[in-house]
Amino acid sequence: MLKQFFILCSGADQTILKTCSNGEQNKYAGIGATVFFTALMASIAAGFALQMVFENTITAIIFGLIWGLLIFNLDRFIVSTLKKRTSFLDEFLQVLPRLVLALIIAIVISKPLELKIFEKEINQVLLEQKNDLTLANKNQIANQYTPQIEALKAQIGALTAEIDNKEAEVNVLYNTYITEAEGTSGTNKLGKGPVYKEKREKHDAALAELQQLKTTHTHKITAIESDIKALQTAYQEQVKNSQPILDQYGGLMARITALNTLPWLPSFFIFLLFLCIETAPILSKLLVKKGEYDFKLEDEETALKSVVAQHVYERELQLKTNAAINDKVYTDIAKDDEYYQFKKKKSRELMQLQAEAFYKKQKSII
228 and 162 in one domain? Predict the structure, then answer.
């Protein structure tokens, strides 16, 4: 039962193969087994890849089976259409496009398994890349808000500096009128004379201006700080909204890119393994000698080809014969005077009818 299944997988003509020896049947059963297991590996590899894309096991299984059936049908077609030739060069030229196709299939079915085998290493690379993307995203968003925040902070700094300058001025005036009262500067007279009162009034006026300035600038600074806080909140909100997109980083393309950053030798050996599996049916049929099945298949094909060629030749000969007979018949008719007189009579009647119709048309116009 299993042997018959693998023979079916090989694409061989079972009617012809049943008449062959047991060894010939085993050979094609082996080719069919290679085709089957290649499709099985392709189905598993596609299932892994689609699981990464859809993150749904049922969907991955369904599409994995469809991909496996596609590869199975393609390999079976390739193997079943290979014919043994008398020259090895002719056979190789025949199989060359199929080898290129096998190379492409091997690349396609090996990549998903590489992603699964090196999953831990790929996850580490993806984590590093995700961290870099997160930092780059924060810096990129910060570049949108930093100039505005820095400008607002500069305004606060200017307002604060203005208050500090006014406080320094008030302190100087305070020291001036105190030292005047103590007699250590100015008039150098102890007591609160007219000069003292004048300096005290200047100080009090400057102090009132300072209080007014503090009140005004405090409101301005509070408003500016509110603007800064709003910008910082908007920055944090934008970072928060963009984070889910970064959290989804790690799809199929990102994993393939991460795989390419790893050492190439392990991936190359896995690719070679699948290349050997994929080309095994083709190479086995190319390298084995022409067997009993090939001779019998060639016998049937050449027999049918001979019958078809004979039928084509007979139809061509029949066509030539009919053409020669028709030429002779119409030549004899052309020499027949009775047929000539009949043709002449009918032509005269037709011309008369045409002339009469023309006359009636011209008369109706007049």
Answer: yes
H or E element at residue 366: none
44-53: pLDDT as tens digits: 877 877 776 6
Side-chain half-sphere of 344: how many Cα atoms within 13 Å? 7
Note whether residue 295 is domain-resident.
no
Q: What is the pLDDT of residues 306-335, one digit of tens each?
A: 878 888 888 888 888 888 887 777 777 766
Claim: this prediction has a pTM higher than 0.85:
no
Number of domains in the chain: 3
Contact 24, 13 (CB under 8 A): no
Residues 330 and 268 in one domain: no
Question: What CA–CA distance (Å, rounded) separates 252 from 60?
Answer: 14
Per the CB < 8 A criterion, the answer to whether 261 and 8 are in contact is no
Q: Is residue 131 part of a domain?
A: no
CA-closest candidate to residue 77, choices 13, 2, 10: 10
Identify the residue whose tokens are 């590869």: 71
Domain that holds residue 160: 137-252
